[in-house]
Give the backbone structure.
Amino acid sequence: MKKFLTALFCVSALVAMLPAATGLTREAVVSHLDSCEAILQEIQGNVRTAIPADKLRAAKGIVIVNQFQAGFFFGIKDGYAVALVRRPNGKWSVPAFLRAGELSFGLQAGGKAINAVYLLMDDDAARLLLKNRMNFGAEAKAVAGIRAAEREAVSKNIPGQANVLVYSTTEGLYLGAAIKTGYMSPSDDDNRIFYNNNYRMPELLFSDWVSPPPETRFIMNYVTNLTR
C-alpha cells in the first residue's frame, strides 16, 4: 500500500506540472493556437528542421503538437494540438483543437518539451482525426520525415507505405525511423469555446459551415503559402 501511495503521489505531482490540455477561457484556447503557430514557424524557420516543400505540397492534413513530457517511474506526456485538413477543392480547413497525451511505465526521470508537426499524406490518415481517440503510430504508418537540409545527403528513402511524416524541433529523430506518437483525441471543449458552437471534428474539418475567426487567419494563410 505504501508503494502504491508513493507512486500515486508521483503521478499526481507530475500531472500538476503539466500545462492544461484544455482552456477554461477563450483567451487560453487562443494561446494554444498561437503556440502551435509558433512551433510550425520555428520548424520551418530553421534549415536543420525545415520540412521539404514537396512533402508540404502533397500533405492532406497537418497536425501541430505541443506536449510536455515528465517522468519518475511513471512517464506522462500531456498537451494539445491543432489540426487542419486539405479539402477536395485544395483549400485548408479551419484549425480544430485536440488533446495529446500518453502514459507509460518504467524507470525514467526528467522532463522536456515535445514540439512536432505531423504531415498526413493521404485521406485515410486525415480521416483518423474523426475518431474519438487516435494513435498515428499504431493506426497509420508514422515515420520520422527526412528534412529539407538532409535531402541530398540522405540516400535512405521513406518507406512507401508511410502515410504520416513526423517532424520535430528535436535533433536526431529522423531518417525514416518508425515513430511512437501516443494518443490524441478531439478537444470538444476547446473547439466549442473557440468557435462558440457545438460543431465537432467532421463539421470543423470537412465542411464549410464554420467561418474562420480572425485569430485563425495567420495560421491558415501560413499553411496555405507553405503548401502551394
